[in-house]
Amino acid sequence: MPTTDQRIGLQQRRLRAPLLCLMLVPTLAIAGDAITSDAGPVAVTPAVSSPPWLAAAPADDRIGQVLAAARTAELHRDPHWLTLLHYARGVTGHRSLIDDPTFFLSPQGVRDPWAELEATVRGLFDGRPPDPGEPDPAHPGLRAPVAARYPARTAWLCQRLGIDPTTLPVASDPELDAVLMALRPREVQLVFASGFLSSPASMFGHTLLVVRGGEESQLLAQGINYAAALPPGAFDPFYVVKGLFGVFPGNFSATPYHRKVQEYSDLDQRDLWEYRLSLSPAEATALMQHAWELRGIWSDYWFFDENCSFNLLFLVQAARPGLDLTGHAGAWVLPVDTVRWIADAGLVQDVTWRPSLATRVQGGRASLGDDADLAVALARGEVELSAVQAAVSDAARQAQVLDLAGECLHALAGRRAITQAEYRSRLFTTLKARAALGKQAATPLPATPTRPDHGHRSTRVAVGGGGDNHDQSFATLSLRPALHDLLDPPAGYLSTAQVAMGEVDLRWREGDGVELQQLDVLSLTALNPWESLFRRWSWAVVIGAESVAMGAPDKERLQARVSAEAGYSAQPVDSVLCWALAGGDVRGFDAGKGWAVGPSVTAGAVWSLPGAQILAEGRYTGYVLGEEDDVWSFGVALRAPLTPHVALDAAIERRDRWDVLATEWALRVLWYF
Question: How is domain 455-672 classified at the CATH fold level?
Answer without folding.
Answer: Porin (2.40.160)
